[in-house]
Design a protein that fits this description.
- Keywords: Membrane, Transmembrane, Transmembrane helix.
- The protein is of the alpha+beta class.
- It has two domains: 191 residues; 148 residues, no CATH class.
- It has twelve helices and nine strands.
- The strands form two sheets. It has a five-stranded mixed β-sheet.
- Strand 8 and strand 9 form a beta hairpin.
- Helix 2 runs antiparallel to helix 3.
- It is extended, with a radius of gyration of 32 Å.
Length: 451
């Protein structure tokens, strides 16, 4: 007994006529949408850079290990999606513009190509060309279909970008807002439970996907219900996403579909990897992955000059990684020092400092003044600054906020007496009060030349 095909095309004649009119006039909207989308997508990488920079300095509590690497990987995935999305809309725009040109050409020559009229060409070549190229009318129709497919695939990529972006935002909220509220002993149990649920889900998905299980009525029902468990991850886009992807699934042979998806996935992974290493090298200029030299090493601060460590060399709007002085060549008898205060450093200082307990019955202004004074005392005790062989155990750091890009930190002005003409070093460390091993923040080389 054969199964009846399942498809929904119950349209009356008026609806079919309206649909034909819409599809025949969609090309002009495609050009407008593709052009607008390309312009918008060109702005996304810069916006992502700003957003990721803010997240990295103000929300990321760990910059090493997997916790520090994972945000960079997701950030690279989102940028790779932007580049692929731009390429998709650009491809559709070029193909559709070419299609418009061919339609115009056909309006001038309605009969298309006459291969037997091509001059300076023998009959054999004319027959081969006719068999190879076919009619202009058929080519225009096929090109129109391919443009429509590329346009639909572009929106699939748009949906994927939205899904990844919203998932990343929710992850950031959970990591920065919800996670600190959970005690460490419960956080470990939650991680174990989450990993266990993930293992159970993967095992159930594998079992329910087996043909022997799906072929049974009960197995088919369970497979359908199980596949809908994670619909919330689509953020309300499951229906439009399903319309496009199921249309492809129902018309393209499965082997061809898998081959195309595999090729697109491979190309996307290549773009993501290249973008990840490029961004990683750009964020950490002391790491060179794709451009190495035999006698070149940037691993040690004392042997590497970073432009962001000097106020007159740093690009406007750039975050300061660790610390900065006024210039790489200092002529004044003082050093104006800024020390950045990112979230990762705040995590370290929180571990090294016992929180101040304030009397809640005291006035608000008094409590604020007391907390500010205590905070200043703590950071000036913990942070030690050394210029060459001179140690500043109390560097008189004051709180400050750089306006562009709004970066918190400390600032002080030092008047060293041991500056020598030529190369000098400024070293910053966090020295715990219990004399444990210090944590190095930065080492800035600079040159001194008296005016």
């Amino acid at each position: 007994m054969t199964e009846e095909p399942l498809h929904s095309t119950e349209l009356d004649s008026q609806q079919e006529e309206k649909l034909r009119d819409l599809t025949s006039q969609s090309w002009n909207l495609e050009l407008v949408i593709s052009g607008a989308a390309m312009f918008a997508i060109l702005q996304l990488p810069d916006l992502l850079d700003v957003a990721f920079g803010y997240f990295r300095f103000n929300m990321l509590s760990h910059t090493t290990g997997m916790l520090g690497l994972l945000p960079s990987m997701v950030y690279s995935i989102m940028k790779a999606i932007c580049y692929v999305l731009f390429a998709a809309f650009l491809t559709n725009f070029v193909m559709r513009a070419f299609w418009v040109g061919l339609v115009g050409l056909l309006s001038v020559y309605p009969t298309g190509i006459h291969y037997d009229r091509i001059p300076f060409t023998p009959r054999y070549t004319q027959e081969k060309m006719a068999a190879r190229f076919g009619s202009l009318q058929n080519y225009i129709i096929n090109l129109d279909r391919r443009c429509n497919i590329v346009f639909a695939v572009s929106f699939l990529i748009v949906f994927i970008f939205i899904i990844v972006a919203l998932g990343y935002v929710v992850g950031i909220i959970g990591y920065t807002v919800i996670r600190p509220m959970i005690p460490d002993q419960y956080a470990f149990l939650i991680k174990v439970a989450a990993i266990g649920l993930l293992i159970v889900y993967m095992a159930a998905a594998t079992i329910l996907s087996l043909p022997a299980v799906r072929s049974t009525p009960r197995g088919a029902e369970l497979h359908y219900r199980f596949s809908n468990l994670l619909r919330f991850l689509y953020w309300g886009l499951s229906k439009p996403f399903g319309f496009i992807i199921n249309t492809f699934y129902s018309h393209i042979p499965s082997k061809k579909m898998l081959r195309v998806m595999g090729m697109m996935t491979f190309l996307f992974i290549i773009v993501m990897i290249v973008n990840f290493f490029t961004d990683f090298t750009r964020q950490n200029k002391q790491v060179s992955v794709l451009n190495t030299r035999f006698l070149y090493s940037a691993r040690y601060d004392s042997l590497f000059v970073k432009a962001e460590s000097y106020d007159d060399k740093r690009a406007e709007g750039t975050y300061i990684e660790t610390a900065s002085v006024q210039s790489d060549v200092i002529r004044e008898p003082f050093i104006r020092l800024f020390v950045a205060y990112p979230k990762a450093l705040d995590t370290l200082l929180t571990e090294l400092t016992t929180a101040l307990v304030l009397d809640g019955s005291r006035p608000v202004q008094e409590r604020r003044r007391k907390y500010a004074t205590w905070s200043s005392e703590q950071i000036n005790k913990l942070m030690q600054i050394r210029i060459n062989d001179s140690l500043y155990t109390d560097p008189k750091l004051l709180f400050t906020l750089r306006e562009n890009p709004g970066q918190q930190g400390w600032q002080t002005v030092l008047f060293p007496k041991n500056l020598k003409t030529g190369q000098n070093y400024l070293n910053i460390v966090i020295q715990p009060l219990d004399k444990q091993k210090p944590t190095e923040i930065a080492t800035i080389p600079f040159w001194y030349s008296a005016e």
